Amino acid sequence: MTDTERQHHLDLRETVDATAAAAGATAALPPDNPLHAGGETRSQWRDVWRQFRSHKGAMVALVLFVLTILFVLVGPYIWTIDPTYVDIRARNSGFSAAHPLGTDQLGRDMLARLMAGGRVSIAVGLTAMIIAISLGSLIGVTSGYFRRLDAPLMRMTELFLALPLLPLLLLMVTLFREPLSQSFGPAMGTFILIVSAIGATSWMQAARIVRGDVLGLKEREFILAAKSIGTPAHRMILRHVLPNVLSPIMVAATLGIATAIITESALSFLGLGFPPDFPTWGRLLYDAVDQMIQYPSRVILPGLFISLTVLCVNYIGDGLRDAMDPRIRGR
Amino acid sequence: MLTFTIRRLLLAIPTLLFISLVIFLLLEASPGDPLGDVPLTVPPEVKERMREALGLGSPWYVRYVLWLKQFFWVEPLYWFDHVFGTQFSAGMQRIISFQSRSPVFDVIAQRVPQTLTVVGFSYLVGVLIALPIGIISAYKQYSWFDQLGTFVSMIGFSMPTFFTGVVLIIIFGVKLQWFPSVYDTTLVVRDWDSFWAQVRQMVMPVTVLALYNAAQISRFMRASMLDNLGQDYVRTARAKGLSERTVVLKHVLRNSLIPVITVIALGLPAVFGGAIITEQVFKVNGLGQLLITAIHGNDIPMVLTLTFIFAILIVLFTLIADILYGILDPRIRYD
Question: Does the keyword Mitochondrion apply (chain B) (predicted)?
Answer without folding.
Answer: no
